[in-house]
Write a structure and sequence with these properties.
Elements lengths: L3 E6 L2 E2 L6 H19 L3 E9 L3 H10 L3 H18 L6 E4 L3 H16 L3 E11 L4 E3 L17 E10 L5 H9 L4 E2 L1 H14 L4 E2 L1 E3 L6 E2 L2 E6 L1 H6 L1 H4 L7 H6 L4 E5 L3 H14 L8 E4 L2 E3 L2 E2 L10 H8 L1 H11 L6 E3 L1 H31 L2 E2 L13 H9 L3 H22 L8 H19 L4 H11 L17 E2 L12
Parallel strand pairs: 1-3, 1-13, 2-3, 3-4, 8-14, 13-14, 15-17
Antiparallel strand pairs: 5-6, 5-7, 7-9, 10-12, 11-12, 15-16, 18-19
Bound molecules: zinc ion.
């Protein structure tokens, strides 16, 4: 790993409310951001909202309010969600902000001046939901499969970007095993380029009342590709800000599988044309179902991540989402699974370990324990495996490995019976405190709030990976506070 790490999520449309799928993507990126910070890597984590979509203007009209007001109100929900989910994002970009508008326009201008944007009449199948022209191949039973709607045939004069020019270079880029992860999603892109090739794409829309003007023609707004995708550099203050110089290129763009093509093909081609360095990796995740059902509006408030946080608190939600959705697949998030995980893994395994260790420390030593000899408990933690899983983005496996150590620690208490064995009682409890301190470091990317609550009881500060050596903390003065996790019905 280098000495800086820049990670982004996709920016969300604000014409609908966030659902648990949005939460999943943001939590994924947050865990990786926090893991890099644990490794003392200078990290920048970006998320935000795509406010320029024409859909917003339509939705605002239906609601009878100004588009800007509609967008501001809805974006606020996404901003608040970051707090509810305990995200450590360093910035939140909104694409109506002047800092973004000027960058989107400058990228458009740069490519136009180079002769790689040209005007052409075009007729095609347009899905209003996608805000995109679809090909026959995209349709299922003549309908857009994402929106289950028949596309309209639209004829327009648009500005086109010479995507076709970059076919060879893009194919070479995506042929590298490291660029798109996981492998299944990489192969999809490679196969699609090999079978269909790259065709030029329209990068403007005429006659729209909402969006960013193209810098060359006031009749046209900049279409989503150059507009939305350039948020990843506008947020860093491209081209001159020191943040841009420090953090670009992005180390990871985290995206859902539905927008893999845009990020793995269109975005790199835009950057090649604008002569800007390419991102290092596109990390693609699958889709979520909720209680076994496809996420849709009909599920109502149930899939609102804010409501889930209010009901179960944030860490059980973060833990369950990471644990139940393996990175390279679709997965199901269910409240039953959350309850089971809270009761078994969080309350029984972890909560119990913290509670019994601290109770014994207070009972026998008033919570004060000097440094003792190493009994070998901490050696049972397999750091190499955890690091390996993180490097492969198998976060559910990393969690499982941490939990093996939590269970080892519980077994250690049972075997040593410090309530009976007075002779090595102090040594056993000190070893347990050190193991709790280290567990707290490892769970901090996944459950920052729980990690902090454990630290407070142990009387230690926020730890880094370099602090996991036995005896690092020295003398303990611990103070037990209520239970970490209440069991759920
Ligand atoms: Zn559609």
């Amino acid at each position: 790993m280098g000495n800086k790490f820049y990670i982004t999520t996709a920016i969300d449309y604000v014409n609908g409310a966030p659902h648990v799928g949005h939460a999943y993507e943001k939590i994924l990126a947050d865990v990786l951001a926090r893991w890099n910070r644990l490794n003392k890597i200078d990290t920048f984590f970006l998320t935000g909202t795509d406010e320029n979509a024409q859909k917003n203007s339509q939705a605002a009209k239906e609601a009878g309010i100004e588009t800007k007001e509609f967008v501001d109100k809805n974006t606020e929900v996404f901003v608040k969600l970051c707090n509810y989910l305990d995200l450590s994002n360093d910035d939140f970009i909104k694409t109506t902000e002047p800092r973004h508008v000027k960058v989107a326009q400058s990228i458009f201008k740069k490519i136009f001046d180079k002769g790689e944007i040209y005007k052409k009449k075009y007729s095609g199948l347009y899905c209003e939901g996608c805000e995109a022209f679809l090909t026959e191949r995209d349709l299922v039973d003549g309908k857009c499969p994402e929106h289950n709607k028949k596309p309209k045939i639209i004829e327009e004069e648009n500005y086109f970007f010479k995507l076709s020019k970059y076919e060879k270079e893009i194919l070479k880029l995506v042929s590298s095993k490291n660029f798109i992860v996981p492998e299944g999603f990489r192969k999809e892109i490679v196969n699609r380029i090999k079978s269909d090739g790259l065709k030029d794409i329209s990068v403007s829309r005429p006659g729209m009342d909402w969006g960013i003007d193209t810098p060359i023609d006031k009749e046209h707004k900049i279409y989503v590709w150059i507009d939305a995708l350039s948020n990843y550099i506008s947020a860093l203050g491209y081209p001159n800000d020191k943040k841009f110089k420090k953090y670009w290129p992005a180390d990871i763009h985290v995206v859902g599988k539905g927008i893999n093509w845009f990020h793995s093909v269109i975005w790199p081609a835009i950057l090649m044309s604008a002569e800007i360095e390419l991102p290092k990796k596109i990390l693609v995740h699958g889709y979520l179902t909720f209680n076994g059902k496809k996420i849709s509006k009909s599920l109502g408030n149930a899939i609102d991540p804010t409501a889930l946080v209010k009901k179960y608190s944030v860490d059980p939600l973060r833990y369950t989402l990471v644990k139940d959705i393996p990175f390279n697949q679709d997965g199901d998030f269910s409240e039953n699974s959350l309850k089971e995980r809270v009761n078994n893994e969080l309350a029984n395994d972890l909560g119990n370990l913290v509670s019994r260790t601290l109770t014994l420390c207070e009972k026998y030593f008033d919570g004060i324990l000097d440094k003792q000899e190493d009994d070998g408990l901490l050696k049972k933690l397999n750091l190499n495996k955890i690091e390996k899983y993180f490097s492969k983005y198998e976060l559910h496996h990393a969690l499982e490995e941490i939990w093996k150590f939590v269970r080892e620690s519980n077994k250690y208490v049972n075997d040593k019976e410090p309530w009976k064995n007075e002779d090595d009682r102090k040594k056993v409890l000190y070893n347990l405190l050190e193991s709790l301190r280290v567990i707290s470091i490892f769970i901090s990317p996944f459950m920052p709030e729980t990690s902090e609550r454990i630290n407070n009881q142990l009387g230690v500060g926020i730890g880094l990976l370099e602090d996991i050596k036995f005896g690092w903390h020295g003398k303990y003065n611990v103070k037990k506070e209520g239970v970490l996790f209440k069991k759920l019905e």
